């Protein structure tokens, strides 16, 4: 089973996770820019985070033969903080970089005017840079937030085929499906979706435009729920090819629209360094 | 640096981007990071600190265009500093390689200090070129040379070693060699000329 996890916050995970992911079949990931659990208080904090997403984290993943990509954005939650919002002016510098495969996570958290302003502006940037957008849907007031999300995507002139609307569930899936956007599902140990509910949705509406992710981060989450979903699909009668389509070919097709996928990961050189930091904790012999 | 060897299509794309930057220097903020993808790159990745890569040359040419488009050296220094600040390791390396060509005098020595704080051999090597030979203070320059021995940057990539090496650097290298020997580790060949010249 080869797996492309299209949404996972690897900066929050350990090398043990990278190893377990590789052993489970994960060969590529996308790490969306989001908040850190602990709120940021300045633009500079974003800059260091973005640097890590295009630098050290890509290197760390490569040491486990996993291709790492990222998406760059001001996230909805911190769009509400006037100390953070000016990072919008810096985004073009990062959206121009290699390995940045979408604008994201954008979207709504509390559906404020500030969130909508940042969301709309970043959708325009996605159009300008020829990038897809990875859209987070809110935990609260999810259906209304999803509806407004689709209106903003249309207003920005972003093709629906370039929009991935994430964290969907049984209540929001049809709305996004009917709009023609890509459908993201986060499979969590306790909240959001679980593997069996995911399989039920796949049985009902098919495999087109569906992306399954672990959305694993610094909270209680599991980087192997993609694999668990593939196993649940097989157990319920889907074929190996069906699983490959959902867990590999669909995310490749979506993010390839950026023209910036980096799926060739060189063989691991255990002594390799990123900015002089190896993962070996050893001095040069 | 030798002229960029690009195929005609890439050369044309680069010339267009350079004209764009001369006319509107702020465009370098998105053209510079995208240069390898939009114009040309050497295939694959290489950690070799002295590697001659096409994307380095392309980015240096874009910086030449910036220098043309921003005649005021303070404005030019500010733009160059931002390209470094928001750049990834490849972009930072290209900024460092271009410094001697940009007419900035001592304005951006702080970028050398930043690069020398990293342990990235490609950045350390690029930082110790002719710009550092002219503008970097003695203390930082000696530490930079010693760092090269530590992280494996060949000293042939450091500009002006023969002219600038002084007794203090030779003492530092001798102490480093003593420490290596005490630990039963080899002394890098690159350190030997600096040791010999002290003893004579």
From TrEMBL, chain A:
<dbReference type="GO" id="GO:0016788">
    <property type="term" value="F:hydrolase activity, acting on ester bonds"/>
</dbReference>
<dbReference type="GO" id="GO:0046872">
    <property type="term" value="F:metal ion binding"/>
</dbReference>
<keyword id="KW-0378">Hydrolase</keyword>
<dbReference type="InterPro" id="IPR012022">
    <property type="entry name" value="UCP005295"/>
</dbReference>
<protein>
    <submittedName>
        <fullName>TatD family hydrolase</fullName>
    </submittedName>
</protein>
<comment type="similarity">
    <text>Belongs to the metallo-dependent hydrolases superfamily.</text>
</comment>
<dbReference type="Pfam" id="PF01026">
    <property type="entry name" value="TatD_DNase"/>
</dbReference>
<dbReference type="InterPro" id="IPR001130">
    <property type="entry name" value="TatD-like"/>
</dbReference>
<keyword id="KW-0479">Metal-binding</keyword>
<dbReference type="InterPro" id="IPR032466">
    <property type="entry name" value="Metal_Hydrolase"/>
</dbReference>
TrEMBL record, chain B:
<protein>
    <submittedName>
        <fullName>EboA domain-containing protein</fullName>
    </submittedName>
</protein>
<dbReference type="InterPro" id="IPR047715">
    <property type="entry name" value="EboA_dom"/>
</dbReference>
């Amino acid at each position: 089973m080869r797996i492309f996890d299209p949404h996972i916050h690897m900066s929050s995970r350990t090398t043990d996770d990278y190893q377990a992911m590789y052993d489970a079949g994960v060969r590529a990931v996308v790490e969306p820019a989001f908040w850190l659990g602990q709120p940021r208080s300045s633009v500079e904090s974003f800059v260091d985070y973005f640097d890590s997403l295009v630098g050290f984290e890509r290197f760390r993943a490569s040491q486990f033969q996993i291709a790492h990509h990222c998406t760059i954005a001001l996230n909805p939650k911190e769009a509400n903080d006037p100390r953070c919002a000016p990072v919008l002016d810096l985004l073009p510098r990062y959206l121009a970089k290699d390995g940045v495969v979408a604008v994201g996570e954008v979207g709504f958290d509390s559906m404020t005017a500030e969130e909508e302003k940042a969301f709309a502006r970043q959708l325009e940037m996605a159009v300008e840079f020829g990038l897809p957008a990875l859209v987070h849907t809110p935990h609260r007031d999810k259906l209304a937030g999803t509806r407004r999300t689709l209106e903003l995507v249309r207003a920005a002139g972003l093709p629906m085929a370039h929009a991935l609307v994430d964290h969907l569930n049984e209540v929001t899936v049809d709305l996004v499906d009917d709009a023609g956007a890509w459908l993201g599902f986060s499979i969590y140990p306790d909240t959001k979706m679980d593997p069996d509910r995911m399989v039920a949705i796949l049985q009902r509406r098919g495999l087109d435009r569906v992306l399954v992710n672990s959305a694993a981060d610094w909270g209680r989450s599991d980087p192997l729920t993609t694999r668990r979903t593939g196993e649940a699909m097989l157990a319920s009668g889907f074929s190996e090819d069906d699983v490959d389509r959902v867990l590999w070919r669909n995310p490749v097709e979506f993010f390839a629209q950026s023209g910036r996928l980096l799926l060739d990961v060189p063989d691991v050189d255990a002594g390799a360094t990123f900015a002089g930091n190896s993962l070996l904790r050893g001095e040069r012999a | 640096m030798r002229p960029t060897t690009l195929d005609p299509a890439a050369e044309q794309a680069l010339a267009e981007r350079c004209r764009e930057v001369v006319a509107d220097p702020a465009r370098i903020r998105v053209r510079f990071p995208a240069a390898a993808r939009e114009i040309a790159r050497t295939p694959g990745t290489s950690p070799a600190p002295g590697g001659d890569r096409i994307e380095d040359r392309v980015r240096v040419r874009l910086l030449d265009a910036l220098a043309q488009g921003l005649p005021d050296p303070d404005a030019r220094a500010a733009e160059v500093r931002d390209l470094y600040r928001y750049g990834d390791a490849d972009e930072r390396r290209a900024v460092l390689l271009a410094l001697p060509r940009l007419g900035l005098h001592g304005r951006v020595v702080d970028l050398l200090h930043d690069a020398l704080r990293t342990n990235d051999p490609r950045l350390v090597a690029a930082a110790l070129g002719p710009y550092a030979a002219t503008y970097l203070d003695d203390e930082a320059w000696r530490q930079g040379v010693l760092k090269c021995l530590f992280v494996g940057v060949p000293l042939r990539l450091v500009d002006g070693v023969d002219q600038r090496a002084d007794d203090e650097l030779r003492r530092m290298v001798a102490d480093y060699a003593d420490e290596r020997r005490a630990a039963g580790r080899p002394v890098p060949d690159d350190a030997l000329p600096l040791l010999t010249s002290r003893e004579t």
